[in-house]
Amino acid sequence: MTDDLMTLVRSLDPADPAAAVPTGEGVRARADLARILATDPLPAPRRRPARVLVAAAAAVAVVATGVVLTPSVIGGDAAFATWRPLPQNVVGTARTEAADRCRDELDDTGATDALDRARPAVAEQRGAWTLVLLSGTGGFSGLCITDDSRRLLGDMIGSVGTADVPAPGPRGLTATDLGTGSLDAGDLSLVAGLAGDDVVAVAYASAEHGRVEASLGEGRFALWFPGDELVGGGVVPLEVTYADGSRARVDVAL
């Protein structure tokens, strides 16, 4: 390094040369610095792939223990190319694994104990997408919709908490999650909730996708489809089939 360059470097140094003198204050400062550097750093927070159901998930919005997960609004409808209006039930080991993944995604929301006790009421696939609806005591629920084709990158939307909603009658439905959310793949619309004992099938007539059938289990129902058709919530008309074979329209809202 040339003398001229050394002179230039010194001219850029804002430090007070007197600060380099080993005074008592300087010694304490160096000791504090050494102690800080010797301390194990706190683990970096895990980057969550979870998303929020915007203005939708009652299980998130209506209780103090609910947690709103961060949304991401990029991507497009092409990512939903494998989606199907008729769900396929996930069973056996795959069902257990899907429920465990959902618990893991929602684990750091602070509802760990309730999630561990909750059972998978619904576990369905629509193409590359998996929906899990966990049901617990006292109305607790945890919901995840995951793009399985992007498991390493992570693309999930979900909700967790206890919705303050009335239980439905034998032939009724009560929504706990309703509206539109966004994730990397684009917008999706969801309606999920509680189903009466006489309800054996639920469907929604989508303006874009036609008849979309719900999955049911343990007194819960859930259906979803690409797009923002249910943005803002409001009243959603559902077609309900009962155990005696009859059908009726049931309107749900939050």
How would you describe this structure to a colleague?
The chain contains 5 helices and 13 strands. It has 254 residues and is of the alpha+beta class. Strand 3 and strand 4 (140-147) form a beta hairpin. The chain is globular, with a radius of gyration of 26 Å.
Task: Based on the model shown, name its key terms.
254 residues, alpha+beta, five-stranded antiparallel beta sheet, four-stranded antiparallel beta sheet, 5 helices, 13 strands
Distance N to C terminus: 72 Å
Low-pLDDT residue intervals, each spanning 5 or more residues: 4-25, 40-76
Pattern of helices and strands: HHHEHHEEEEEEEEEEEE
Strand line-up across the major sheet? 1-2-3-4-5
Helicity level: 10-25%
- Given the structure, what is the number of helices? 5
Number of strands: 13
How much is the radius of gyration in Å? 26 Å
Name the average pLDDT. 78
Quick one: biggest sheet?
Answer: 5 strands, antiparallel
Strand content: 25-35%
- Mass-distribution shape: globular
Layout of secondary structure:
Elements: H1 3-12, H2 24-38, H3 58-61, E1 88-89, H4 92-106, H5 112-117, E2 119-126, E3 129-135, E4 140-147, E5 156-162, E6 173-183, E7 186-195, E8 199-206, E9 210-213, E10 215-217, E11 220-226, E12 236-242, E13 247-252
Antiparallel strand pairs: 1-2, 2-3, 3-4, 4-5, 6-7, 7-11, 8-9, 8-12, 10-11, 12-13
Describe what is shown at a glance.
The chain has 254 residues and is an alpha+beta fold.
